[in-house]
Amino acid sequence: MKMVLEGVRNALLRFLKSGKSYEESVKEFIKELQKELIKADVNLRVVLSITRGIKERALKEEPPPGVSRREWLITIVYEELIKLFGGEKSPEIKPPKKPWVILLVGLQGSGKTTTAAKIAYYYKLDGYRVGLVSADTYRPAAYDQLKQLGEKAGIPVYGEPNSKDAIEIARRGVEFFKQKGFDIIIVDTAGRHHKEEDLLKEMREIASKIKPDEVMLVIDASIGQQAYEVARKFHETTPIGTITITKLDGTAKGGGALSAVAVTGATIKFVGTGEKIDELEVFKPPRFVARILGIGDIEGLVEKVRRTKIEFTEKDVEEFLSGKITMRLIYKQLLSLRKMGPLRKILSMIPGLSLKMPFNMDIEAKQAEQKIKKWLAIINSMTYEELNNPEILDRSRIRRIAIGAGVEPSDVKELIKQYQAIKKLAKQLKRRKDLLEKLQFGARI
Ligand SMILES: Nc1nc2c(ncn2[C@@H]2O[C@H](COP(=O)(O)OP(=O)(O)OP(=O)(O)O)[C@@H](O)[C@H]2O)c(=O)[nH]1
Ligand SMILES: [Mg+2]
Fold first, then answer.
1. Domain-by-domain residue ranges, the chain?
2. Contact 387, 379 (CB under 8 A)
3. Rounded CA gap, 172 and 168, in Å?
């Protein structure tokens, strides 16, 4: 996919390398970001609100330990851009039932026929039996166009080139494939009406006749933020289930179209990135944004920051279950507790274990937050040696750590107690795990 918003990445790189003060560079970066978003035709009000949000977070938020403020800004930009393009959610691709009927609608030339073939091909590769229906009676040789595309991809096409009744063709086409036991049926419609009302009317009639499981609106990315109005108008006529944005490869306005559609709350399912049959991608905002921000250096940084934020690796869990506990692991647990503690979730999924993590016991939410802050500061004041082997913490070390963290020695002792509790718990767990494994081993023999 050709880069929409490529400039954002360059601006970020400049920001990372800038010799100016952090505040100065943030300001400069924000200006460039605004320019880039406007160039991509993102709505001005949206541009201002998103850049204001980024600036505020950049100046106020403290990065997690081990991450510099400059690196942290990348995460902020990453997260805010994801929101701009529709959030973390991924579209549902797998049809929830069979047969699944998709009705494609959209303005003239938006790419419906091409997209119909692309989607058919996409699902065919996924192992579905897919049929195409040509219900366009306006465009000359519309049936031939779809037939040719279908032939290339090995997908059967239903059409009645001599009929003018689009609604009946659609109905019979869907019936034809249903009877043959096809999994997915895609109906291509006309965009070429003299008046827009006629188009909307036909679309409503076809929809009420064939009762599609999914109405997909196809929008050409080059209309930029006008995509908002188009999506809204179509949605008013027939509830639009999903949206595909085409020609993202050929326009600088793709950012505008994507963000405008995201604002309507509609799900962008696919994006078209070229004329060829395989130039179609499932639209996942995080992946899309990661790509805007670029591969290599920036992506690595985002990863690093994300990993600091995203709790546990498999190795951590393994270490925990093997009873090997370090302060590092506890540190991660503390960080993750701020967001629900997946380790705890993992533990709760182990059969036969209903346990409470000591960290969660009897601590009210607010107090917990304060305590977690304190504990994080304490762990930050420990040496590597102490982190890996907390047993060596004696009175003088505890005092040093307390002074470094700006807390009382009793706070440090409390953390050590928690550490010991977790360690004990891990040992019990290990015993049960060993036992479980033995039992399973025994069962296999
Ligand atoms: N570059 C590029 N071209 C595309 C893409 N999708 C469609 N096109 C081109 O856009 C033109 C119009 O595509 P169609 O699929 O015929 O559009 P349509 O909506 O069916 O048009 P009507 O049936 O006349 O309403 C064709 O030349 C396609 O090759 C895309 O993702 N990228
Ligand atoms: Mg067409």
1. 6-89+293-307, 100-283, 311-444
2. yes
3. 6
pLDDT the model gives residue 435: 60
Ligand 1 centre distance from Cα of residue 218 (Å)? 10
Q: Is the CB of 108 under 6 A from ligand 1?
A: yes
Residue nearest to atom 27 of ligand 1 (CA): 275
Q: Is the CB of 114 under 6 A from ligand 1?
A: yes
DSSP 8-state symbol, 223? G
Yes or no: domain 100-283 corresponds to CATH 3.40.50.300: yes
Report the distance separating Cα 134 and Cα 136, nearest Å. Answer: 6
User: Which atom of ligand 1 is the closest one to the Cα of 136?
Assistant: 23
- Asked: is 6-89+293-307 a CATH 1.20.120.140 domain? The reply is yes
Long-range contacts of residues 378-385, Cβ cutoff 8 Å, at least 24 apart: 378/402, 378/405, 378/407, 378/411, 378/412, 378/415, 379/327, 379/330, 379/331, 379/334, 379/415, 380/65, 380/404, 380/405, 381/405, 382/327
Q: Are 110 and 81 in contact (CB under 8 A)?
A: no
Residues 30-87 have pLDDT tens digits of: 999 999 999 999 999 999 999 999 999 999 988 877 778 887 888 899 889 999 999 8
Q: Give, for ligand 1, the residue of 136, 275, 280 to mutate: max count of ligand atoms closer than 8 Å to Cβ.
A: 275
305 token code pair:
């920051």
Q: 0.85 exceeded by the pTM?
A: no
Q: What is the pLDDT of residue 345?
A: 43
Per-residue pLDDT of 161-182, as tens digits, reads 999 999 999 999 999 999 999 9
CA of 150 to the centre of ligand 2 (A): 13
Q: Which CATH code of 1.10.3720.10, 2.60.120.10, 1.10.260.30, 1.10.1060.10 fits the domain covering 311-444?
A: 1.10.260.30
pLDDT at 183 (0 to 100)? 96
Residues of the chain predicted below pLDDT 70:
1-4, 294-324, 332-369, 428-445
| 148 CB within 6 A, ligand 1 | no
